[in-house]
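Researcher: Please predict.
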Amino acid sequence: MACVVLLITVALLGACHKSAQKTTSLPVVKTPLMRTESLLHTVVQLSIYHENQEKTIEDAIAYIKEMERLLSANEEGADVYNINQAAGKEAVKVDPRTFELIERSIQVSKESQGRFDVSIGVINQLWKIGSEDARKPAEQEIETALPHVDYKKIHLDKEKGTVYIEKGMSLELGAISKGYIADGVKEVLKKDGVTTAIINLGGNVVVMGTSPNHSKGWKVGVQDPDETRGATVGYVFKKDSSIVTSGIYERFFEQDGKIYHHILNPHTGYPVENSISGVTVFTKTSTQGDSLSTTLFIYGIEDGLAYVNQLDGVEAVFIDKDHGVHLSQGLKDTFQLTNKEYHLAE
């Protein structure tokens, strides 16, 4: 699965926030304390709308670094690295958080009928999209690798806290790990009384509470797939929400005159080919949004909208290659189209 990159523009437009989960909360300010770091192979930015929260930001950054080390498929000693190295040999005892994320990943795979599958690592390693070694694998290479992409062959032992994958398999959690980490950062902030903040892990955005400047909430712009980051198609106001986008325009390479993007179909081993250029998903948790953004891309517009419309608390914007903007039911009265190059599709 593909990692989701920075595709969301969040403008600050909201009103005073009262936390329903805490009896006391920190005073909210209009100018945030901000911190930007290069982590998770992207740009991470944290914005906290309370004063004197330097330690909270330090704790959040430390948490991100810890989880990055834990979930890496390439760093020696990381849980995912160890699982992949032990494929077909032995079960690996992992951190409870790693176990929880893999367990959740398998559940998402079941719900999506395998459209989402963290065992796609063996296919990702063939394409290497996003690296200097990106290439189109031979058909035989893909045919040989595909039998090793099967979430049903990931074996969990909850009592022992171990994970075992069969010989030839390789896990890659990039399509869900940033969402999981974003949710964890939110918990770190909440423990210190933070109620109003923006967590941006390279495009996996979580807005906490509501903006200090407008009663409607945070103004969230949906990226224009044809332009550089920051150019938007339209916007919607959101409070206490996760926003994740998946698209074909950030990581790709060209070979023999054809462009190959990074969103791979675990059923075929090839980049997904359909009419979608981008999908933006609004959910309560970033873990769900991260996995859904790629899953919906593979579903396609019609089936993807049908899937979203039967999920509680989930909305989505699909953008097609002909500049059509397709909205799930809950966004039809709230999404504002602002780009004249695009049109709302029926």
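Model: The first strand starts at residue 8 and ends at 11.
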